[in-house]
Amino acid sequence: MNENFFADYKKFIVVPEDETKVGKEEYDPKKYAAHYILTLSIFNSRIANWREANKYEIDIEKSIKTVLKEFNEKQQGKYYLQLLELDKFTNYFILALSSKTKFEPGKESDCISAIIDKMLMNPFYIGQNWFNLIGEKGRVERKLFRCSFKEYIVEDKVHEKGERFENISELIPKSGEIKLIKGTFKKDVL
User: Which of 95, 88, 80, 117 is nearest to 40 (CA)?
Assistant: First the structure.
């Protein structure tokens, strides 16, 4: 074979689209249809709080961030996970799950359980050695997390110009003079 046959191979390189997008697209909550707040704790835990994970040579914060980064890269366009709270003196952490499509009412639990058990468990269990954090019952059932969740609903806020006051004392001027003003709440229509 002629050694110079592929000498001009650089003209034929095409970088796959997914490779260039990974990690570059920023999270925009407006692009997601549903948001859930998940609270995860270790099933059949051998530790009382996250500080005790050091005994098993596990950096909890680093592990969580690594797994979430990989998850978000793989699930780009479907789901997005974000760490909201991690306190080393507790035995749980809180995540925000955003989904491009809204889960069917009544099926949320099944969908979220599938995400946790099928997409998140193995990267933590094997990839980050979290199997050391669970007892024998957890290993037999091959279950790592207990999970609870609640849908996060953002209520539309009234514009600042038409702000409603819940407490009449907020309307009383600092001078103490009170005047009766009749009027209705008006909302600007654009």
Answer: 95
State pLDDT tens for residues 114-142.
999 999 999 998 889 999 998 888 888 88
Integer angstrom CA distances of residue 185 from 1, 162, 171, 173, 190: 84, 7, 14, 19, 16
| Structural domains of the chain ordered from first start | 31-151 (3.30.70)
Distance, in Å, from the CA atom of 122 to the CA atom of 114, rounded to the nearest integer, reads 12
Nearest to 91 by CA among 43, 128, 129: 43
Task: State the amino acid at position 92 in one-letter form.
Answer: Y
> Does the structure show a pLDDT above 50 at 159?
no
What are the Cα distances from residue 190, in Å, to 158, 184, 187? 14, 19, 9
φ and ψ at 2, to 5 degrees? Answer: -75, 125
- Predicted TM-score (pTM) of this structure: 0.68
Average pLDDT over residues 32-42: 93
